[in-house]
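FAQ
Q: What does a multi-component entry look like?
A: The components come first, one per line:
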Amino acid sequence: MNEIKVFSPATVANVACGFDVLGFCLDSVGDDMVIRKVEKKGIHITRIEGFDLPHEAELNVAGVSALAMYDAIDVDFGFEIEIYKNIKPGSGIGSSAASAVGSVFGMNELIGRPFNKTQLTEFAIKGEALASKCEHADNLAPALFGGFTLVKSIKPLQILEIPSPDDIYATIIHPQIEIKTSESRAILPKEVALADAITQWANVGSLVHALHTSDYDLIKDSLHDVIVEPHRSKLIPYFNEVKEAVLNAGALGCGISGSGPSIFSVNKGLETANKVKEAMERIYSKTGITFDIHVSKINTSGVKIV
Amino acid sequence: MNEIKVFSPATVANVACGFDVLGFCLDSVGDDMVIRKVEKKGIHITRIEGFDLPHEAELNVAGVSALAMYDAIDVDFGFEIEIYKNIKPGSGIGSSAASAVGSVFGMNELIGRPFNKTQLTEFAIKGEALASKCEHADNLAPALFGGFTLVKSIKPLQILEIPSPDDIYATIIHPQIEIKTSESRAILPKEVALADAITQWANVGSLVHALHTSDYDLIKDSLHDVIVEPHRSKLIPYFNEVKEAVLNAGALGCGISGSGPSIFSVNKGLETANKVKEAMERIYSKTGITFDIHVSKINTSGVKIV
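Then the predicted structure of the entire assembly, as tokens:
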């Protein structure tokens, strides 16, 4: 096998209470990538469609993660990468993570899978760092492993796969505004009230328990963020209106996807997920802001060969 | 049935990362109580052995929780309570919780179990509040439910029963020094670094996952407290020495039990728990401080009829 086509999925990081540690994987939105073994040594990005991104491997997220892996293997050939980008950069649903994951996953398949998914995440972190200026894995982990993941620590890298009920669907609205990463970081407090932190870790523990036990009511009770959302939601127009409408439409929970501007909801069943989509549309169609909405089952397998 | 004998167990609250929310139940140490239906209406504490505690129901933890339940039922009889106290008050292993739980559990059994365990916890919270000056349930929940518990919230009261592996043993040393509750509260910061809070909720999520999956290595990796222990450990003589010796002896984790002064460890297997006991003894026997050590399997059923 010299060529492989890969689907690298979008992801939702933070998941309300789990800032910086939790994430889940989407099914219906993601990038397509082609990875090809070629004689010419090195990493060569030969085609990018969808968005205007750099072709130089060392300036491209998929290229940097590929180079990190390429440096760790000893081969007398190279790789070409084609990127068919569907996830808009800056949308808050793991666009850079999908790129970073797709290249290393595809290369690993082509050379007989010498690396496990945690090792692939280590390479992909290098690509993600190019985009977000810091090493984090809260989008990479769900993109590689699928389902719900908890990044327990970065050094050493520890990723936990949390089971989830079958009937969970996400609805995500991407308002096409730009939030600068620097701004979404600067707005966070360096210190938080101990009482709020306790509420947050009670919710994280309880969400993990709820996912293990398929307890939808408890999932709903756990999807609250008292730490980050009160600050970052100010950067997202109509966040409070959307959240209220989404919860009224029956969602289990609603919050900021990654650092925004996308807003995610978690729902029991496709019917509710579609009602939530309508509620999001109702609010945003009046605002004059362009938006996309995705409805997706939780993707339990992550990045895959297509 | 007009009389019942109850074993009301000691408990460990906080469990390293889970400050204010997690707890587990012990098997080999606890109070014995006798609860008796009598003609004379009201709650009457007729006997207390072991420690000098008030006999007036409204001044006694077991009495206050009993009164809270008595006010909620409509009966033409009363209850006598005898308390054979084995858990030293102020030891940090849930002495007041055991008293608060024993009376309401026993009364509930005698009147045909009209209340579930969460409702019993609501009554017991009133007794616990007499001792600790605030309403909390992190010792009450494991004493009533057994095993590991997560108190997700107090209002409304939500208690989650987290499963645990069969082979977990706790070793607990109680150095017989007094730590004033006011002091152990005052030493805690009102605000904590966001980065530390993230570490803590990653550990809480990861511990819940580890307990669900019987992953001992992950239990070990999760039992860290970066928020409270750095402050409260200063109040416990030789805490750092004990912790180091305990971890060297093979414990999965070690921390402050409740607000101290007891130090708990969690171990895989009885053999390790006994080695940890020896390690604790080696350190403390040189200090001149009187101490007790308990080795106990996790008690998965909680308070019980004997």
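Q: Is there any commentary attached?
A: Sometimes. For this entry: The first helix of chain A runs from residue 61 to 72.
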